[in-house]
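Ticket #4471: structure output looks truncated?

Reporter: J.K.
Steps to reproduce: submitted the chain below (511 residues) through the standard prediction queue, then opened the result file.
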Amino acid sequence: MSDAPPFKKVLIANRGEIAVRVIRACRELGIRSVALYSDADRNALHVRFADEAHPCGPAPAAQSYLDMDKVMEIAKKSGAEAIHPGYGFMSENAAFARRCKEEGIIFIGPRPETIESMGDKVISRQKMAAAGVPIVPGTTEKLSDEQAIAYAGEIGLPVMVKATAGGGGKGMRLVREESELASSIKRARSEARASFGDDSIYVEKFVEEPRHIEIQILGDSHGNALHLFERECSIQRRHQKVIEEAPANRMPPALREEMGQAAVAAAKAVNYEGAGTCEFLVDAKFNFYFLEMNTRVQVEHPVTEMITNIDIVKTGIRIAAGQEIGIRQEEVGINGWAIECRIYAEDPEQNFRPSPGEVLAYRPPGGPGVRNDPGVYPGAEVTVHYDPMVAKLICWGRNRDEAISRMKRALREFVVKGIKTSIPFHRVVMDNPKFLEGHYDTSFIETEILDSASSELPSDEEELQLAIMLAAIAACRRDQDSASRIQQPGGAKQSGSNWRMLGRARQMRGS
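Returned output as attached by the reporter:
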């Protein structure tokens, strides 16, 4: 693999922590980074980190980060050779990837045809079945309402009604009662139409006691493909992952090998280029079924980086420049254990209500085995316009127990003031006996946390003391700053103690 920078300049078509993550990767590769910012993000962290930044429109994403023409115009004006889409926004937009190609700009991700086929859940199921990858029993065609009802009756309830263009739990309904089937189909279609502009649905058999296990893959334009082992993503709330770990709990070595081979077969079936993920469901008997392929870097990629020591973002950028992956499968191993907590601006005591506002204090944890991928800083504004993630906290240990101990310690150190965050919720999970045992599935939060009488959130008294201390330090710094600016008549700085002069100044203004 060449040491020369793969590109001179890359535009990051995203915001928040993933934009900061990509900017850091670019800097390590010797690439200049170009950030975009909406009116609401004028002072955002990714703007401060980038080598240059350009306004892209009003706060609504549809008029800024999702405005394809505007993004392309800025890319050309800035001289960017490539665009990294991060995750979300246009990261899995085949039309945008195709537009990049037409405009002579490299899209850092898979080919448009791959995004297109894997974005349609029905087509992806057909391709995976043809490649010999196990899929959840269900239809491989888009269904009318009547066909969906008839098929559900044929395979028996419970079933999942899913949007063919779905993702992130949108357009998805679990149906256990026949009387709910018609209304669930209607709601799934409505949500799919609103979220994806496509109300097509299909039906799958619901897998009981499912665990959500995914395999990180890498593929290049030279025909190479490999996997970086698995992540456990079963801690979910409303089908949204909130805590991930790698490797997975209770993973028999033979199953790990089989799932890894299936993921590589899936990647080769679509000539995958770049970093991607195959998501699977694993049932209580360790049968596994393909769910979908995410054709982008994922939020939870750091836990895989922590146990394999492979920088997934940098590798994806190099692949986009036409380089080979540069690693052989037999060179990839698992070292230790990593856990990630997604820190959101939400109030867990108020049913995870969004908590926008100014971040008055921000003190991230540190120490051995702790990584913090931030999206904010003290004074930053968390708005209602975008995803409420403020940071990702990742902890590594030689084994799962050590990783959990470090996460507990790091969560206690983590201070965010001015907004509510999900930190207290994560602390509850880290103390839960079933989580500690590693015996959980995707129903964990509903059954073990939200329904548990013992799931009271930790007292905020300790954090309040920390906030008072931080406020005192801030006031002290402001006073020092005021004192340093006190000058003698004529412009000369006052000699003697600034603190003495500050006291005199306070006496003069009666404070």
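Triage note (M.O.): checked the attachment and the full token line is present. Confidence is low (pLDDT under 50) at residues 473-511.
Status: closed, working as intended.
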